[in-house]
Amino acid sequence: MGMPLAEYVRTLVTPLNVLAAAILAYGIPMIVIRFTGGLSAVTHASNEYPWSILLGWGLFSGVPLSATGYVMATAVYIFGFKKYHPLVRLGVLTGFMGYLFAVIYLLIDIGRPWRIYYPMAVSYGPTSVLFLVAWHVALYLTVQLLEFSPAILEWLHSRRVRRWAILITVAMTIAGVILSTLHQSALGAMFLLAPGKVHPLWYSALMPVFFFVSSIYAGLAMVIAVSTVLARYLRDRADRQYLETLDPLTVGLGKGACVVLFVYFALKWIGVAHDDHWGLLATRPGAWFLAELLLFVLAPAIVLTLGVKRQSARIVRAGAFWALAGVILNRLNVSLIMFNWNLPGHFHQIVPPMREAGIVLAVATIHIILFRWIVNRMPVLREHPDYPDHG
Amino acid sequence: MSRRSCLKALGAAGCTVLSVGAGKAHAARNFSGWPDRFGMLVDLTECVGCRGCEAACNRANGLPAPEVPFDEKSVFEEKRRPTASAFTVVNRYSPKDGPRGPVYRKVQCNHCNEPGCASACPVRAYTKTPEGAVLYDKELCFGCRYCMVACPFYAPAYDYGSALDPRIEKCTFCHERVKAGGIPACAEACPVEAVRFGRRKDLITLARERIRKHPGRYVDRVFGEHEVGGTGWLYLSGVPFEQVDFPTDLPDKPLVEQTKGFLSAVPLVLVLWPAVLGLCYSAKRYKEEER
Ligand code: SF4
Ligand code: SF4
User: Fold this and answer.
1) What pTM value is reported for the model?
2) Of the residues A7, A373, B28, B33, which has the maximum number of CB atoms within 10 A of its CB?
């Protein structure tokens, strides 16, 4: 590094790093406890609530937030919106890392993580929606790694292999869209098996459609969010093109997200009408449902509209973060908050214990650290000088 | 280049069709259960709440000794559900529309005709046997607990305390005993025959007959006859079922039907998407070449 060790260590002591260290110091031992004392040592461990925040956040929220890869690749390579090119690699990397960590949360949660490949190789349960999810997440993880591989290969200076990697881009993009369509919606379809447990306002035959459509705007909003944060904290890793085009591109992405949000908003009402659940809206869960829909779907949609109208990247960013909060809230509602909503002691069950929250925070922190490590080294926010016009 | 990558895309998609399409045959097949399978009839009006079935189940399955002994009535203070070390539990209710005394309800896996747990499991760890039991194979299970999410009766339990060897635990319908010509331990132990073992279709006839003979004693419903496609265990009650915590909002169709629509849309996406996207891509290339 070219500086004395002590000095180097001192540069590491920033408020954010201290926070990260504190989280890891608490969370990592909790992961160890999970694998020595069982899930009951860190979660509420209830037979009525098999899934807790570990999956509610890690899998059900993490996967839609990782729709970044397929939305960006489709926009640029299939539809030909060339100007978004500077954001494609970022989208693919965010997506890949999101899926990778969804799997990591899963490995912490499931009983025998070393059997994770069983649905792929040992015993097939084709009637299971989770079987589909398992296959598609595994395949899509591979596809995304291939999609991101040009960046890795440029970093490794492997010119020949990189050429091959570029060649398969379109095929990989198409495969990625198919896989994403199916497993994003499959995550919603998983809850179709629990008609008595998910509150009827959230339970709908259209759940797969809801999950898929919301993943599109989640992906767009996530690209806005991540690109904003990086432009702020890793500014020196980005090239001029990235920094200069970011604002107009943000507005453009916001426009897309906004349209999809309105579509989703309409679809949700079609869902209520389809099941004729109007009466339920006047109940307490109904108020919560309206809050989700009006405050976390309609409101960010309006903010985005405003941002697009005024061509203001700042307003669009606010709308994007807001929309993301809405997606997370929706996934938590389906998988946790409105799951078993009528069981006694429900509230206690949906608030995770400190230890479990520690695990979630620790994994999220590792996620961010690894992400930063990659963006620091590989050409993600910039073009590699030796490879202009990447992929 | 444009045509080549298009072909490649279609090829890749084709492989996916094959890998998942192979499974479709299973998802779509209809299963009406084994005609001669066994079931149980639980008559809530007979049950005296002695917890003899709990004790018998504990012994038959070699489960750990309970924290409070089986003749202790204080357990009725709260509503319990089956756990990894108690495959069946009895709960006490004082329903408002009931007869004078309390009503007891035994809870365990209902051994559904088309079990939700089995259609949830991604590694097919569950099998519905011709005898009627729904069995679980711990050698295949990887502990995702989707079966617990899917079971409408909260029957499968998980030993959360085990770090490296966790498994699902639930009632086995005493499968080994039944195959050897015996009857399940709980039915054998019940002093008042509130739990009765027999062929499922005979038990339905019996239940219907009881309702017809004693219309004042029973509500006119055999719980389990149709719920989620029918369950192996059937129930008669003197009070409305929802007052003793039966889930009464369940569809009559098997749970697997709820996901069938989605699963059959899968091949459609697999075929249509590549075509649509390929077209978009070719259109884009064409426009670029024009320029
Ligand atoms: S009661 Fe639950 S565990 Fe038992 S067979 Fe039915 S779905 Fe499976
Ligand atoms: S926990 Fe085991 S048995 Fe239950 S669905 Fe998952 S793999 Fe199958």
Assistant:
1) 0.90
2) B33
